[in-house]
Input
Amino acid sequence: MTNNEGQFHYFHIPLILFIFLAVFAIIGYIFEINLGNDDYQTWNIGFNPSDLDYLKGRMNGFQAGGPNSFADLITITAVYSLFKYKNSYALFIVPLALIAVIVTYSRFSLIVLILFTFIKFIKDRLYAQLIVSVLVLSIAVIQLGVYERFINDDNNGISDRLLMLEASTEYFISSSLELKLIGNGSNQLIFESNNIYLYDEFEKNPYSYGPHNSFIFYIINYGIVGVALYILIFMTLFKRKLLFNFNLITITVFFILSLSTDLLHNHSVSWFLYLVYFSHIKSEK
Output
């Protein structure tokens, strides 16, 4: 294999990853493919049936974190591919991404995907692609119960997250100065709705609970000092002139999604953040 061939394959790896994830989500949803429980014994790898009348089920991938993390990974690789590759690719990237994220039924990921798709189409004046994407989204919303998913909170998903967010914020505010500075450490606390438990005393599967906000997770576990050290990793972004290329846009998507998930410390997904970030640094040299 020549150097040019090797560079071609490397250049397209993120796009290939996106296609694999999206196709697996769609095919798995249609045929209800279930590859067994994940390592955390929380979700099926593949199709997860639902008891809700309007919801057939939710698709999960091979990563940790369940359908929401799967949707995050699809969204991230889709946005990266959308902004990196030729505009002609948009006509298959966006519809594929929309349907794939929809079958995970992750609300926040879908909102972020739609937002950055709209930004891309308007920025590059891709009005035909915009119309096709709106049609695909409209059909999928009608056929797959997306509207009901957004307006209903049958499984208390939204209310539970708000309660966890409130409880974790109040906990940090009322904690001692020492804990504010250096945190509690990893695997010490569990947040379930508005209740706080010690990790070792929690009887349920701990992997489904938490503040569902990466920034609050870091500040509670590692304190202000830990968060400051983490931010230092990304100091290069603040030292240089910001160039809103596909790398920086993808990093932005990562941080936005982290407001609603435990994405930054889910290392089965966050590796892509560091790959993109260090590629961004390299491209500016």
